[in-house]
Amino acid sequence: MKSEVTHSNHYKHTEDYFDKVAVEKKGFYDSKNPNKLGQSIWQKRVRKLANSVFEKVAESTKKAVDIGCGNGDYTIELATSYLNISFIGIDFSKKAIDLANNDSENINNVSFRKGTVLDTKFNDAEFDTTFCINTLHHIYPNDLKNALTELARITKTNLILEIKNKNNPYNKYLHSTKVPTYQTTLNFVLSCLPDFELIIKKPIFYLDCASPILVIHMKKVQK
């Protein structure tokens, strides 16, 4: 019988799963075909939306971080597209970070290390832009406010986030059965980030209510 995932064992269960995926699938946990590893159609769409947001703020970004970077393929994509920006990626899977470091050894403007969204160990306002893509739905609900607060703490200006949209009626049929995932709402995220204003929200489909995933850009309010 499968053991129940609770708050006390959630992160160990999830970390073990992603370590296993890093070895077996090079970190591409959505891949159905072991001979053709890569992002799912959904994650390709999410990255396209995140890229469209970052294009608007890249000129004012000198240092950026990708929280929950997995095997680092997206962070590396950003780093090779914006050579004048310094990027760092963190993830709680040591094996995924090993993949990221191996794949980026000849790229000078990106680095990777093990870390978590709940305790990044970075300085206050260290990054002009913080990405957190395909990560927040792996945070246990009781910890989500703390995770968002930590993202806000390390961010000087721009937050680019992906959330699983709890207001989408079909989300309960779309979550992963291999590792627990948790949905939230845009209103909850906004309530946890009082020092940031919503600049844009990009549903992966055209309407919020029809979109199981939202990409949002928030900007720190200058006081």
Structural overview:
Helix 1 runs parallel beside helix 4. Helices cover 31% and strands 22% of the residues. The protein has a single domain, classed as 3-Layer(aba) Sandwich (Rossmann fold). It is globular, with a radius of gyration of 17 Å. Strands 3-2-1-4-5-7-6 form a 7-stranded mixed beta sheet. It is of the alpha/beta class. The protein starts with 9 loop residues before the first helix and ends with a strand. It contains 6 helices and 7 strands; from the N terminus they run H-H-E-H-E-H-E-E-H-E-H-E-E. The model has no long low-confidence stretch (mean pLDDT 91).
Characteristics:
alpha/beta; 7-stranded mixed sheet; 31% helix; 6 helices; single chain; globular; Rossmann fold; 223 residues
